[in-house]
Amino acid sequence: MFYIGGKITKKNRMEKAELKIDYTVCRESYPEGFEELCRAALDVTKNAYCVYSGFAVGAAVLMNNGKVVCGTNQENVAYPSGLCAERTALFYACSAYPETGIKAIAIAARDHGVEVDENVTPCGACRQVMAEIVQRYKVDFDVIMIGKKRTILIKASQLLPFSFVMP
Questions:
Q1: Which of 32, 86, 99, 132 is catalytic?
Q2: How far apart are CA 128 and CA 96, in angstroms?
């Protein structure tokens, strides 16, 4: 859960606020109960199409029904036309199981075939998609950002606290 708080001054009616975000850091290990999901995300990186960057990303989505759906980044010579692993997996998961919510997503990466040391993080577009999935299913889910030396576990809602919503 995140907290926004502060104090309004009489002079300018502006509020100074701070944002605190809770997350768990795992050193050289995966979060308890998500080991299999993390291995699936790392394993699927071999299917990434990343001939331009050499940066292979894999995502594994654990559905509330126990099914696991995986996706990888798919690059294109026209860079904006590619798609991130997170959105590839999330869009497929929501299409294949539209009535089932998401329990967790694990994200892993290899740079030119070598597992990254520090955790990989979703881009802004992927964070926005995650925020909308939380709204759609009205249930938050875990995001596991994997690195060989450090893995972070955080709730999807905390990745983009000021997400875009339609009025």
A1: 86
A2: 20
- Decide if 118 is catalytic: no
Token code pair at residue 17: 């606020």
At position 84, the amino acid (one-letter code) is: C
What is the value of pTM for the model shown?
0.90
One digit per residue, pLDDT tens: the chain, 167 residues? 455 556 655 666 778 888 999 999 999 899 999 999 999 999 999 999 999 999 999 999 999 999 999 999 999 999 889 999 999 999 999 999 999 999 999 999 999 999 999 999 999 999 999 999 999 999 999 999 999 999 999 999 999 998 988 88
Position 73 in a domain: yes
Residue 43 lies in a domain: yes
